[in-house]
Amino acid sequence: MRYVRYLCIAIFALALISVALANRAMVTLQVLPAEVSGWFAVTPAVNLPLFIVILGSIVAGLLIGFVWEWIREHGQRAEAAKQAREMRRLEREVARLKAEKHEGKDEVLALLDEAS
């Protein structure tokens, strides 16, 4: 199974390298449209190879998706934490009740009773 994972990573790396080699031309990346940049008297533009724009867009999309899912699953994580706290509280209560049950008994009998 480990070799299948390495094979998939190698294929993915070769695909990324071929995309990078095929898209080495320089492109101008405009941060703002010309009409809007006129309002602020700035023209933010960057010259980058096309493959950096493509791969950067993929990375930005992945990060936005991860953050979106993390925010969406907040309620589920909070509920799981609440249930874990409740379970620990109940376990402590069960241990306390068992200790009360065996109070005043012989220690050996109490241990045997707990084991069963």
TrEMBL record:
Domain Lipopolysaccharide assembly protein A residue range list: 25-94
A single GO cellular-component term on record: plasma membrane
InterPro entries on file: LapA_dom
Cell membrane is among the record's keywords: yes
Domain of life of the native organism: Bacteria
UniProt keyword list: Cell membrane, Coiled coil, Membrane, Transmembrane, Transmembrane helix
Transmembrane segments: 46-68
Coiled-coil boundaries: 73-107
Listed name of the protein: Lipopolysaccharide assembly protein A domain-containing protein
The organism of origin for this protein: Sulfitobacter brevis
Lineage: Bacteria, Pseudomonadati, Pseudomonadota, Alphaproteobacteria, Rhodobacterales
